[in-house]
Design brief:
- The chain has helices at residues 9-18, 24-31, 35-47, 112-130, 166-174, 183-195, 253-257, 259-268, 276-284, 288-312, 327-340, 343-346, 360-393, and strands at 51-56, 66-70, 76-82, 87-93, 98-104, 136-143, 147-148, 151-152, 178-182, 202-207, 211-217, 220-222, 316-320, 350-353.
- It is an alpha/beta fold and 394 residues long.
- The chain folds into 3 domains: 9-70, Winged helix-like DNA-binding domain superfamily/Winged helix DNA-binding domain (Arc Repressor Mutant, subunit A); 75-188 and 358-377, ATPase, nucleotide binding domain (Nucleotidyltransferase, domain 5, 2-Layer Sandwich), CATH 3.30.420.40; 199-354, Nucleotidyltransferase, domain 5 (2-Layer Sandwich), CATH 3.30.420.40.
């Protein structure tokens, strides 16, 4: 079997493809592991045909290192980040490089199977247009609700999805390995692994039609005991008063500060907005009523996050989703955090937008699929390598 302490195959390929490392020595330095460990993993990847040796690099005083390159023709993965009103789809090559992304008008409001069938058609059209190298290795999907073992559990904004085994349905539709996870978790994974901030403990918030967060601890996603870590949507806030929430509880944070809640509030005041994007655009156009509403929502998020920051003391709080594109919103979140946190908790705290932008969830989904597919392939190679020895002992 593959050594559990070895770096993931997808991470090795990502470093080589991005140019961050081009030799075994550079990989060992970037990953913080022994060169012997990296050499074993590289050898497996060469044998699997996903890495190639592309010549020799500069000598650092000894033998010239053999440079590595990703075999792009080895395959690709497709991804989707399903939202309440729209979906972002894309494709990564086997080295984790984003080849294409786009947004389509598809949300989670329809029945599960109808939504996934439409998603499959859109992804197939995208692949026919982009024509990435190699075969489709797998698909990764982010859903705006809690997910456990590929099935949707207790969703508050996805009517008809409760208990639906999305992973099984997508495997049947796409005919390849599929990974399904919560959209905020995937955003956190994508941001942590692609930007390489040098930050190990992160709170990554996706603020769009709904609000959720992913938590990175020690550089890896923290899921919690029941895979429910990071669900800040249903924390009670004073501003929620007796406001009913889609989860059945009153006074939830999401009921008054999510993008969907802001749309309802502004429409009740006669504003012509249909989506969270409309709210952000109106704020950019300096509509006074909208700016006030957006700032109030940002301040509430800062209030909720202050408790988390005081308790967790992360390296960074990173904001993604449609609302994070509003400067007024981000400024209000930042002010709320500084106002309510202990000075020691914010002394070295980074508060900013995700660097991977709207594609953060796509990166997370794609890299998670590559982890699964490549590590399974290497495990099979390792098992096949031991078979002759086992037979010889019989």
């Amino acid at each position: 079997m593959v050594d559990s302490e070895s770096p993931s195959a997808a991470r090795v390929l990502q470093l080589v493809a991005s140019g961050a490392a081009s030799s075994r020595t550079e990989l060992a330095t970037a990953l913080g592991v022994a060169q012997s460990t990296v050499s074993l993993r590289v050898q497996d990847l060469l044998r699997a045909g996903v890495l190639t040796e592309a010549g020799h690099g500069r000598s650092q005083g000894g033998r010239r290192p053999r440079t590595l390159a990703v075999a792009a023709e080895a395959g690709h993965v497709c991804m989707a980040d399903l939202g309440g009103a729209h979906t972002r789809i894309g494709v990564l090559d086997i080295g984790g490089q984003l080849l294409h992304s786009e947004e389509i008008p598809l949300g989670a409001g329809e029945s599960p199977q109808a939504t996934l069938d439409a998603l499959h058609d859109a992804v197939r059209t995208m692949l026919d247009t982009v024509r990435p190298s190699g075969v489709l290795l797998g698909a990764g999907i982010g859903l705006p609700g809690p997910v456990q073992d590929g099935a949707v559990t207790l969703p508050s904004r996805m009517p008809g999805w409760r208990g639906f085994d999305a992973a099984h349905a997508l495997r049947r539709t796409f005919g390849c390995p599929v990974v399904v996870d919560n959209d905020a978790n995937l955003m956190a994974i994508g941001e942590a692994r692609v930007t390489n901030r040098g930050k190990e403990n992160l709170v990554v918030v996706k603020a769009g039609s709904g609000i959720g967060s992913g938590v990175i601890v020690g550089g890896a996603l923290y899921r919690g005991n029941d895979n429910a870590s990071g669900d800040i949507s249903h924390m009670r806030v004073a501003a929620g008063a007796d406001m009913p929430c889609s989860c059945g509880i009153r006074g939830c944070f999401a009921a008054v500060a999510s993008g969907a809640a802001l749309v309802e509030q502004l429409r009740a005041k006669g504003m012509d907005v249909e989506s969270t994007s409309d709210v952000v655009l109106a704020a950019e156009n300096a509509e006074p009523e909208v700016i006030t509403t957006v700032r109030a929502a940002g301040a509430l998020l800062g209030e909720v996050l202050a408790t988390i920051v005081n308790f967790f003391n992360p390296d960074a709080v990173l904001l993604g989703g449609a609302l994070s594109t509003s400067e007024a919103y981000v400024a209000a979140v930042r002010a709320g955090l500084y106002d309510r946190c202990l000075p020691l908790s914010t002394r070295n705290l980074e508060i900013s937008r995700v660097r991977t932008g709207a594609d953060a969830g796509l990166f997370g989904a794609g890299l998670l699929v590559l982890d699964t597919v490549l590590d399974e392939r290497l495990a099979k190679l390792a098992d096949s390598r031991t078979e002759p020895d086992q037979k010889a002992d019989v």
